[in-house]
């Protein structure tokens, strides 16, 4: 009888010990947080003047999210976006970012598109000490000096001046050297800033500035402006303009038979598929900035696959169908953020920022490393020359040979045809 | 600045060509605002709408943009009639014009812009035509066809409207209706019918102006906002109720802008144009050719 | 009327309590925009609603106020209240001067001239490199935050005070003898002139106060948004809201713009962070048209009509 009781007691003890162990084990294990998503918040220009670019960027960012989630997410958690349309209106940005941070409780933030939309968010993210990946703003951090700001536009350490450095390097490498330059800027933020940098470069290399004017945003007809430039007889023509102005200037330059040794510089819009198709051969020999073109020297890992996905997703969405200009960078800046978060293993903003400063990242736009001010450590703003462009053909721009990379040397794919028109 | 005869003459020519285009855009407003005193601030947006519809026809049927614009003009005429009907029922009938009418057209402007964004997206639209990119030369004078074709079309359109208003019964009734509704009724014409035809014509011209706009440059839905100030300035400068005045004012503004752009600095061009307007309002409020 | 002043004190106190109790800054950012709309709407209505002279160029006054603030801040680092006063003075002077030049014109010509003026101002600012010109300019909030624990709370209270001031002045204008004169001008200017109403002087008073308050509304804007360029400061949206809000609320009374600003402003802020797309623009358009066609006298008018109907029900005709 006593043995039975002993066995029972033993069984009971065993049972209690087992039960207690299991209970403690499950009570001490942290709850499975794999279910809770990581929220990335931002505002984006989905309506208004910059909406074409904003929508294209969003498509690219969503592709990154899908790719990341398919591969298991970030830190084992699925990634979710929370975003709002800032309508290309800076006054909406502060409210949106405070909502994202204080109400929607996002874990990470990235910027909207363009200087005007990035700047209003800066004071807010700075106060909260957040890492701020920024999408295409020129020299935003010059004023704020924030050490957790990172700009994916490859302008270079001194953005305003590095932007046009390539153009001038190419020009002054010619012999005989060009002597004079005409500077023209559309009256809007980026164009003005690009030309102010060009002015500094021009003075540095001793060029004679024979024309230096600005024109109103959205001007209907730029024939008089081109005529004045033609009358100035400048060797080089450096222009900062937005799409509407860029189209008008290229057409007017062709109609008036403008002759120059180099023409182009900082014209936004000449990178967009629909505009390239419409301008066709008028683009030939223009040397302009770009960020990514389908040349063999820029065939970084993943970019071709990304572009295929983008082009499929962009069908019918009424955005740039080819997506060479902005989308790869919108994908890359999230790649960098994702890689940093994974490397650090947590959402510690300070650690993430330090990691980004200290490392070079492999992205679809090549290796990226940042300088102290959050800009690219070395400029990778391409100077690209249009060549052999045929009329009315968009597909040609999807292949190499139409936009030759002249600068920088690391990704050069051909030599300049000089002069532009004589 | 180098001041040569060649530069001067070309600047004037450029200005005239651009002014002609401005006249096309302002023509409809000259009728709406000048004759009917309806403050259609949405007129430039109708022009943009015209650009898009023209673009669709041009893309779909491959016809020249100008012809496409003329082809869709009748549809826009009907649109104008419907617009007037709505406006009449809500505003003129109840005596709530001016401020309410203004707000109505503001609202309409946003609605049209948004619908364009929803249907066509925000990417720029452009057209191609054999004459875009070509330039005629007459000695040292340059006529880029991209500006010349719209100029010629605009002048023809203005002449047609002018003739219509002065020579036909309906046309003269339109001119009369703003002056004296009662007298018009006594003459056997229905003011409402007359006014709706007038607005129909105005919106129809917007279709053609839209075609010209997309020939000159790329179009996207918010481009219309840039023209609001200019078209009102032209109509007022030219004189309310004067079609010829609108053309003259448009050419003047075009030439002034071209001059300032060529010789001084393009950045100041808008200020000069509008300053002329302010001066005119201060010294001769009825405009250049308006009724005193 | 002590009731009004009690209400003012109440609003001010509520604002202070709000800053004390609520920590979520989002509400303050949203409230700033709504209050800005309220000040602009009340100011616009001083001329547009009370006299019937429509100002199309509200964004011009607003932007000049903002840029005055920027220029003085860069030159002398003045504190915000002084910047506001300066902006008010400058824009008031502009209102007076341009009013003197153009208020003699018939209503619609005046509207066109305001549009022209806004464009002239925009061109001047575009070329004024000291304040950044077309490139835009960064404005950093000062390091020290006066009184409150966050800068946006400070800005919020500033706007509350400005809004109270604007509404109080609007009320004074409409209920005083000046207001009667203004109403006479609105109804029939020619008749008013014949009756001896000093129409030009009254219109100038309206135009000046309108300018003052629009300038003051613009002065804190650079600190709110950190980056200012002419395209965003002279935005069409500011001009449209300044007209739409009084129209929605009711133009004939001083509290119409307040109601309109609350309704339209809050709607816009909510849709920005919820539906958030083109529909946002569509809403402004539809609301405008809806109100204009169905409620031309605004909400105030609707309430009036409703009250009148109720009032005559079951009562013998007077």
Largest sheet of chain C, order of strands side by side?
Answer: 1-2
Structural class of chain C: mainly alpha
- Run of helices and strands of chain A: HEHEHEHHEHEHEHEHEHEHEHHHEEEE
Through-space gap between termini of chain A: 116 Å
Which pair of protein chains has the largest interface, and what are the residue counts? A-B, 46 and 49 residues
Order of helices and strands of chain C: HHHHHEHHHHHEHHHHH
Which shape of chain C, going by the Cα principal axes?
globular
Number of domains of chain A: 2
The total strand number of chain A stands at 14
Q: Helicity level of chain A, as a percent range?
A: 40-55%
Major β-sheet of chain A, in short?
Answer: 7 strands, mixed
Keywords:
heterotrimer, B: 292 residues, mainly alpha, ABC transporter involved in vitamin B12 uptake, BtuC, two-stranded antiparallel sheet, 11 helices, 73% helix, 3% strand, globular, C: 318 residues, two-stranded antiparallel ribbon
How would you explain this protein's 3D organization?
- The complex is a heterotrimer of chains A (422), B (292) and C (318).
- Residues 23-33 of chain A have low confidence and may be disordered.
- Chain A is of the alpha/beta class and 422 residues long.
- In chain A, strand 9 (262-267), helix 11 and strand 10 (287-290) form a beta-alpha-beta unit.
- Chain A has helices at residues 2-28, 51-70, 93-103, 115-118, 122-127, 141-144, 159-172, 189-204, 223-232, 243-255, 273-279, 303-314, 327-344, 349-358; strands at residues 38-44, 79-85, 108-113, 132-135, 149-151, 180-186, 208-215, 236-241, 262-267, 287-290, 360-363, 366-369, 382-386, 403-407.
- The termini of chain A are far apart.
- Helix content of chain A is 41%, strand content 18%.
- Chain A folds into two domains: 36-153 and 300-369, Response regulator (Rossmann fold, 3-Layer(aba) Sandwich), CATH 3.40.50.2300; 159-298 and 380-411, Rossmann fold (3-Layer(aba) Sandwich).
- Chain A contains 14 helices and 14 strands.
- By secondary structure, chain B is mostly helical.
- Chain B has one domain: ABC transporter involved in vitamin B12 uptake, BtuC, CATH 1.10.3470.
- Chain B is built from eleven helices and two strands, in the order H-H-H-H-E-E-H-H-H-H-H-H-H.
- Chain B has helices spanning 5-35, 43-61, 65-92, 99-120, 145-167, 169-179, 181-186, 191-216, 228-238, 243-264, 269-283, and strands at 135-138, 141-144.
- Chain B has a two-stranded antiparallel ribbon.
- In chain B, helix 2 (43-61) packs parallel to helix 4 (99-120), helix 6 (169-179) crosses helix 8 and helix 10 crosses helix 11.
- The longest helix of chain B has 31 residues, at 5-35.
- The radius of gyration of chain B is 19 Å and the shape is globular.
- The mean pLDDT of chain B is 87.
- By secondary structure, chain C is mainly α.
- Chain C has one domain.
- Chain C has a two-stranded antiparallel sheet with strand order 1-2.
- In chain C, helix 2 (25-51) runs antiparallel to helix 9 (199-218).
- The two termini of chain C are 29 Å apart.
- Chains in contact: A-B, A-C, B-C.
- Chains A and B meet through helix 2, strand 7, helix 9, helix 10 and helix 11 of A and helix 1, helix 5 and helix 10 of B.
